[in-house]
TrEMBL record:
PROSITE patterns: VOC (PS51819). The lineage of its organism: Bacteria, Bacillati, Actinomycetota, Actinomycetes, Micrococcales. InterPro entries: Glyas_Bleomycin-R_OHBP_Dase (IPR029068), Glyas_Fos-R_dOase_dom (IPR004360), VOC_core (IPR037523). CDD domains: VOC. It comes from Frondihabitans peucedani. This is VOC domain-containing protein.
């Protein structure tokens, strides 16, 4: 086992200015930038994740960041009001763009959306 004092995760973006505007202005996160141009996103609860610039960025093919919400329908409405379009993976989403897992006993209610770099994010309620 390694001795460490904390851990964090990160993912790449194609444009940090565009990413900063999205994560700060659309999602409401506290975002700072270091001298190397790496964004530090402060997540609800105090954890941190970094978003680093990568000129040959390729969006992740998996969800890189999940946001737990108390009311998924309200969160969907807030995202839509901010101009965010939901993704439907596999045709399982309802008319609001939510895959309803709670009612069927198959996990949380979840909806996916993309950041400006095409990385997959989700909101979920369990």
């Amino acid at each position: 086992m390694i001795t460490t004092d904390h851990a964090f995760s990160g993912f790449s973006v194609r444009d940090t200015a565009e990413a900063r505007a999205f994560y700060q202005d659309v999602l409401g996160l506290v975002v700072s930038e270091n001298a190397m141009g790496i964004l530090d996103l402060t997540l609800p609860g105090g954890a941190h994740v970094i978003a680093y610039p990568k000129t040959d960025h390729v969006p992740a093919a998996f969800t890189v960041l999940n946001f737990h919400v108390a009311d998924i329908d309200r969160a969907v409405a807030e995202l839509e009001a901010a101009g965010v379009r939901l993704e439907d993976y596999g045709g399982y989403a309802d008319e609001k763009g939510v895959m309803r897992g709670k009612a069927a006993g198959r996990g949380p209610d979840i909806a996916w959306f993309l950041d400006p770099s095409g990385n997959i994010l989700s909101i979920l309620s369990d």
